Each structure stands twice: as structure tokens, then as C-alpha cells.
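ugh ok so i messed up the first submission bc i forgot one of the chains. this is the corrected input, ALL of the components this time, i swear. 253 residues overall. if the numbers dont match what u have on ur side tell me asap before i send this to the collaborators (the ones from the other lab, u know who)
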Amino acid sequence: MKRKYIIAGNWKMFKTRSEAIYFLLQVQDKLPSSELVDSVVCAQAPLLRDLVKRQGDNLKIGAQNVHFADSGAYTGEVSAVLLAELGVSYVVIGHSERRAMFNETDESVNKKIKQSLAYSLKPIVCVGESLEIREAGNTNEFVSNQVEKAIEGLSKEEVKDLVFAYEPIWAIGTGKTATPAMAEDTCKVIREKIGSLYDEETKEAVRIQYGGSVKPDNIDDLLSMEDIDGALIGGASLNPDNFLYMVNAALRH
Ligand code: 13P
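and heres the new structure output, hopefully the right one now
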């Protein structure tokens, strides 16, 4: 089964409003149609309204976090209701930076996925191990467990539409990319896990990105792997030419 590639930029806490709009103006007319590849940029919450106005068939906008409640006394949080009202398409859930610095847990990730789906936001669910876990030989078990907990209670139809991002923590922002073979091995483990929890159809449908120091000169090797259906890109996605190059890379595979 040929799955459509999804190339997403995670801008993290970078870009001012004018820089973000400039980026969109640079790439807007050059990105390929969503019939060929899904292109996404995930930006800081206050930028979303301006970016969504410029969202087109060839570029969708994502948030970087969402709360699991409809509304309430949660100072500083952003609701799925509001993201949906703004017209946001995707939401990154469970990024390792949020797990490490903002108390994100497997349980909150699961609730956030359910909340996002209830408002038709497409979750990009991040999983990945630390260097310590990899060196101890526990990567497969750790990542499989994160996946299982993230999707607990979800129907097959819901899981088929999810995007997973396998992001080894030791490769994020370090310039140390997992080798394509290493990235492929863990993405396959994720796919097999989904197959064992659901069925063959779900396993083949779900899209799995790799993230961690992806850049123009390594994206081709990563995308050539069988179980890697795209990339979640931090630093290298901030530059419009690099972003365009990496989206176009998907067309070559
Ligand atoms: P870098 O591409 O900067 O390593 O970041 C990866 C990442 O965390 C994307 O979510």
C-alpha cells in the first residue's frame, strides 16, 4: 500500500508574526498539491489565526499543543474548540520537549488525542526514547509502550487517520540523526505494534514520520525507507527554501 507522505515543520518557539507570514509568502505558490504530499507547519498559538488565513490546499497549519478539556480554569492552555474554530488542521501531541519540561504524560497524551479527534483536529503523536533507553537496549519496548498508551480506547477508524512521529530524543536538535536503518527499525516496530493491537488494514494505513535533525541532505535517505512516511522537522524547517526542498523530496519516492 502506498501511503501519502506528510512533511511537517515544527517551528517550536521560533518566528515572530512577520517572519511567519514572510515564510508563507515564500512557499505558498511553490508547494505541490496535497494530492501528492501533505505539507504542514506547526506554529506558536498566537500565530495560528494569521497563518490559517493563508492556509491552502497545499499547506495546512498545525498547533504544537492542546488541552484535553473543553474549557475551564487552565491558565495559559489552549482548547481544541478554539483551534477548530480558528481552522487549524493538525496538532502536535506528546512532543518530547513537552514530556520533559511540561509534565506531559502518556495519560495526558491519550486524552489530548481523543479531544483533538472530537474536534476534527488531526493529531501528530510523538514518541521516542532517550539515549539511556537506547543504550540499554530497551528502545522497542519503550516506544511500543508509548504507542499503546497513546491510543488506548481509540477505534480502528480513528487510529488509521493518526500520524505518528518517531523522534529519538538524542537526535533532536543535536545534529545526530538516527541512521535511516535505525529510524526504519523503530518505525517498523511502531507499525507492528499497531498491527498487533488492531489489524493489518490499520497497520498499513497509519502514517509514521521520523523526526530528529532531518535536513535537506539526509531527507532522501530517510524517506526511501519502507515504514517512514514523512518527517517532522524542527530547525531545518524554519528556512523556506529548505522546507520546499524537503517537501519536494517526498515527490521523488
Ligand atoms: P530538529 O529537526 O531541530 O532536530 O527537531 C526535531 C523535532 O523535535 C521536531 O519536532
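quick check: The radius of gyration is 17 Å. that seems consistent at least. The longest helix spans residues 180-197.
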